[in-house]
Amino acid sequence: MLIRLSLYTLLLCLVPLFTLTIGWHWQENMSLTRFDYLLYLITETGSVPYAIITCGFFALIYFVSISNKKQAILVIITMAFSVVLTQGIKSGLKTVFAEPRPFISAISEHSNMMTEYFYDQSKEKRANIVQHYYHSVNFDNVPSWLVEHRAKETGYSFPSGHTIFAVTWLLLATGFSKILGRENPKLKWITAFISIWAILMLVSRLRLGMHYPIDLLTSTIIAWLVHIGLFYCIIHFTSIRNKYLNKI
């Protein structure tokens, strides 16, 4: 289990590690392509309220794919617990580190506004500042959908909630595929699908100017540590339960 979780974690770590290796960093004047709009649609699957729909979609897939419905319900409950736990950790760490997002740092630099002042404002006021900035300055390379997205995403950068969300689902899929995959090969296909989705989610956070590579790397490791502990508890509990049932 540890090896499999670690391999999938390493797969996602390749995204920030590659950008760090080649020295890539987000720039405000970066040209966007149609592929970036696809990335935006993917990143929205991890944004509120669409993230709730994503959770429901994945839960439904697992409920349908696992024939033993009691087992399916336990899996879904575990998944819900994991998502809530990791998002709670994310929220706590954001408050502690209070790191501005890349695009907010750019706005601060070009408008002579301190980031501390920006984050002292209400969420609605921060959204207005972002919209006013892009509407008052000629940014032909920033489409309206991206302006609206940035206006909604004015929280702190570190760690990345979208990354933790995506990595959480991938590691849940990986772990349960390991536990139940021999009896249910369909779970392996689900894991493959979630892998592609998760990779694109991480890429989207960099391309859209929402996070730094180190945010993604650290967030991925945080989710990995949580799920090592989670699946250790699941396997340990299952082992004790099976020994107890065998004695009866």
Automatic annotation (TrEMBL):
It catalyses: di-trans,octa-cis-undecaprenyl diphosphate + H2O = di-trans,octa-cis-undecaprenyl phosphate + phosphate + H(+). The keyword Nucleotide-binding does not apply. Pfam families: PAP2. Its EC number is 3.6.1.27. The chain crosses the membrane at residues 7-27, 47-65, 72-89, 162-180, 187-204, 216-237. This is undecaprenyl-diphosphate phosphatase. Keywords: Membrane, Transmembrane, Transmembrane helix. It is an enzyme of class 3 (hydrolase). InterPro entries: PAP2/HPO (IPR000326), PAP2/HPO_sf (IPR036938). It comes from the Bacteria. GO terms for cellular component: plasma membrane. It comes from Bisgaardia hudsonensis. Residues 74-231 form the Phosphatidic acid phosphatase type 2/haloperoxidase domain. Gene3D superfamilies: Phosphatidic acid phosphatase type 2/haloperoxidase (1.20.144.10). GO terms for molecular function: undecaprenyl-diphosphatase activity.
